[in-house]
């Protein structure tokens, strides 16, 4: 770092020219590195596939190893090229080091920037462009996709359900997480309890959907119920219900699945925050005769508002993108459609990329406030 | 805190019971499919999985050996045998007429209508005794109420692994997951190092961009990338999905690793620089080994996320035998085998068992990663 500070910005023309050559050289080494390493890996794969004709597992392992090797090869190779052009020895050592240090960060960042741009930045721009185009993305249709969206019943239903999800799921998961965190910290077997409550985090949404569909299973009255929920209802003398088909309420039965998954996440983070509360504040409250409930609600919770907000927003983002649970449990039938599934519908069944992109943009717009808030918080943190 | 609670036993009980209730609610659903997947498929359809945990009462009708086979013992003619005929179980009651199949306690003596006395023991052994030598080739009927011990089987797993394609999907998922976990780590680690310890213009802007990209919904990228992939010719290929998962996981990877690498002690890196080590060497020999906990955290996240993903796999991979991943297969089974719970539960359990093992084995790193990602930053 001490070396690189010599390269201060200056306005002279020759400086600008050298900046240009530096940029060009950076680009050249980066591209050369990527092309060479990818070509090398592809060539090696071709040779291997000649020797080992059976694709399947051996091929997959080979591609795996070669991919990682190509990745490492790029970093190693591009650094070698740079060191060859500006060797850290000889007469111009100081100047060489300065120049090399201006280029090297970009070599390190190169693949990341390329991939982030291609996979996240470009799609945002492309989606905006697509939202003004027809089904195949060729004909310009102006704002007609947006007009269609504003009048569409399916979109309204999805929007209503998404808002319900946004209200219920983050609140419920955070609430249960907070309760679980506060209680498990006080008992001897708390860590085991935490692990078990946390476990659904590891289960896929599809797996969780199977698990809960089994709980909601419905058999006609008179036959024995094999779903837990209906078994409980009938054992208390109620009528069995086909839970997932009851309008409006079925949304809540789907939400339960996500709450079940996310409570563990909320619990883990809130538990760490609760432990971080200075002991003195709690001791003072105990001396003043506060009850455990007062300590919790008036002393502890106010001190972890920041963390609660983080948990809340994290789950909110997840809820905005909720897709798998709805797709596998009801596929949006019986009034359970949500935005992400509706978008998927228009993409694969409606085959209208313009409309699907418009729906995706709506999800994006809903995320933007959280994005801005996150960036501001992160910048505060880094200063 | 324990001081405040310790004085109130009632409160301690309430806390323990509440946690127990939470734990039960949070584990029972998973437990339910585990038990179901081990049950006989005909049983799953007619009784709740919880009944499989307890011995079930069954009424069976057994027939004794033909009376003509009775042997003389102490002046009586006796027939011996076991009502289970090779099986095992526990008798809770028995009877000699169909109207009252559980009239007698095990061990007591019952009068047969056709003469003779019958005793059935708890383990099913019966003794049928006659005063005179009996005749007839037809054995007497015995009605027993037996408690069958819970019966479990691995048949469902055999079915799903070998004939429902779950085994193949398992391999496909593995093929997707491993490279999609390793590649982003390497790329992100270099980027995180540059963002932490190298000086260059635009660093703060780049960091802010990464934080912003953390929350970009996946849905945005699907259509543009699908079009791009089809143009380039890597639609429906493993290369395509690896790169897609790399792209979607990269912001979190860079963010987590930067938080960690930026927190490494400055002296170590400075002194290595003074000793003439290049950034490449510092990264490889010092930063990479020291960052192991952060690398592990991200690796677990990415592994769980890729393994459990349905959306990316549905969009970027095909629907054929060679490419259908486990989540996709499970979704397909839910559609085609919606009522066959023996297949669904066993498949679901195969799909969730790997992440659960990873989760319990490496929970420490997962928690650390969650905390680094959420509490410290944004």
From TrEMBL, chain B:
It is a multi-pass membrane protein. Its main location: membrane. Keywords: Cell membrane, Membrane, Transmembrane, Transmembrane helix, Transport. Residues 170-362 form the ABC transmembrane type-1 domain. The keyword Transmembrane helix applies. It comes from the Bacteria. It is found in: Cell membrane. The chain crosses the membrane at residues 12-35, 170-193, 205-226, 238-257, 286-307, 343-362. Belongs to the binding-protein-dependent transport system permease family. This is Carbohydrate ABC transporter permease. It comes from Chelativorans intermedius. The lineage of its organism: Bacteria, Pseudomonadati, Pseudomonadota, Alphaproteobacteria, Hyphomicrobiales.
């Amino acid at each position: 770092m001490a070396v690189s500070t010599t390269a201060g910005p200056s306005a002279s023309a020759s400086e600008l020219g050298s900046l240009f050559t530096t940029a060009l050289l950076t680009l050249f080494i980066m591209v050369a590195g990527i092309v060479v390493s990818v070509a090398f890996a592809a060539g090696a794969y071709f040779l291997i596939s000649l020797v080992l004709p059976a694709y399947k597992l051996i091929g997959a392992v080979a591609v795996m190893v070669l991919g990682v090797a190509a990745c490492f090869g790029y970093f190693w190779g591009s650094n070698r090229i740079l060191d060859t052009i500006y060797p850290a020895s000889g007469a111009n050592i100081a100047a060489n080091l300065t120049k090399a240090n201006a280029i090297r960060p970009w070599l390190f960042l190169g693949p990341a920037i390329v991939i982030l741009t291609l996979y996240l930045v470009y799609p945002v721009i492309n989606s905006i462009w697509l939202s003004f185009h027809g089904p195949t993305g060729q004909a310009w249709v102006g704002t007609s996709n947006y007009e269609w969206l504003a009048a569409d019943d399916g979109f309204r239903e999805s929007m209503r359900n998404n808002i319900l999800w946004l209200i219920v799921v983050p609140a419920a998961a955070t609430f249960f997480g907070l309760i679980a965190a506060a209680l498990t910290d006080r008992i001897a077997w708390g860590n085991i309890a935490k692990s078990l409550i946390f476990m659904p985090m590891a289960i896929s949404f599809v797996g969780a959907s199977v698990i809960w569909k089994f709980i909601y299973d419905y058999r006609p009255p008179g036959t024995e119920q094999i779903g837990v929920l209906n078994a409980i209802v009938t054992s208390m003398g109620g009528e069995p219900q086909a839970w997932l088909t009851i309008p409006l309420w079925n949304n809540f039965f789907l939400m339960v699945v996500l709450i079940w998954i996310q409570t563990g996440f909320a619990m883990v983070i809130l538990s760490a925050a609760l432990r971080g509360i200075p002991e003195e504040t709690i001791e003072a409250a105990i001396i003043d005769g506060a009850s455990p409930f007062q300590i919790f609600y008036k002393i502890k919770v106010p001190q972890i508002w920041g963390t609660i907000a983080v948990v809340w927003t994290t789950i909110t983002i997840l809820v905005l993108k909720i897709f798998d649970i709805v797709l596998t449990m009801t596929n949006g039938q019986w009034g359970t459609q949500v935005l992400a599934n509706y978008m998927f519908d228009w993409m694969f069944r409606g085959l209208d990329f313009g409309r699907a992109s418009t729906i995706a943009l709506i999800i994006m717009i809903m995320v933007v406030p959280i994005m801005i808030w996150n960036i501001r918080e992160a910048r505060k943190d880094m200063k | 805190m324990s001081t405040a609670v310790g004085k109130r036993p009632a409160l301690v009980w309430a806390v323990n019971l509440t946690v127990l209730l939470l734990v039960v609610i949070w584990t029972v659903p998973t437990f339910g499919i585990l038990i179901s997947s081990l049950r006989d498929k005909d049983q799953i359809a007619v009784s709740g999985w919880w009944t499989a945990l307890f011995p079930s009462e069954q009424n069976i009708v057994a027939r004794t050996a033909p009376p003509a086979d009775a042997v003389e013992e102490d002046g009586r003619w006796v027939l011996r045998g076991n009502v289970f005929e090779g099986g095992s179980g526990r008798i809770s009651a028995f009877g000699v007429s169909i109207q009252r199949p559980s009239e007698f306690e095990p061990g007591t003596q019952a009068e047969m209508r056709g003469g003779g006395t019958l005793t059935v023991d708890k383990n099913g052994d019966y003794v049928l005794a006659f005063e005179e030598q009996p005749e007839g080739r037809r054995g007497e009927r015995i009605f027993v109420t037996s408690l069958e011990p819970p019966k479990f089987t691995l048949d469902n797993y055999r079915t799903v692994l070998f004939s429902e394609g779950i085994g193949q999907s398992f391999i496909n998922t593995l093929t997707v997951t491993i490279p999609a976990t390793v590649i982003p780590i390497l790329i992100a680690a270099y980027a995180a190092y540059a963002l932490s310890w190298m000086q260059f213009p635009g660093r703060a802007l780049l960091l802010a961009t990464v934080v912003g990209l953390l929350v970009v919904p996946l849905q945005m990228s699907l259509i543009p990338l699908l079009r791009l992939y089809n143009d380039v010719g890597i639609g429906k290929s493993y290369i395509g999905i690896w790169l897609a998962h790399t792209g979607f996981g990269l912001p979190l990877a860079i963010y987590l690793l930067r938080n960690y690498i930026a927190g490494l002690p400055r002296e170590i890196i400075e002194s290595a620089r003074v000793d003439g080590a290049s950034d490449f060497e510092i990264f490889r020999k010092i930063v990479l080994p020291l960052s192991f906990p952060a690398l592990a955290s991200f690796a677990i996240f990415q592994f769980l996320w890729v393994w459990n993903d349905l959306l990316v796999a549905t969009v970027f991979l095909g629907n054929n035998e060679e490419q259908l991943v486990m989540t996709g297969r499970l979704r397909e089974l839910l559609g085609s085998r919606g009522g066959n719970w023996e297949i669904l539960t066993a498949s679901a359990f195969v799909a969730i068992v790997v992440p659960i093992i990873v989760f319990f084995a490496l929970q420490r790193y997962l928690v650390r990663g969650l905390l680094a990602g959420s509490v410290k930053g944004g």
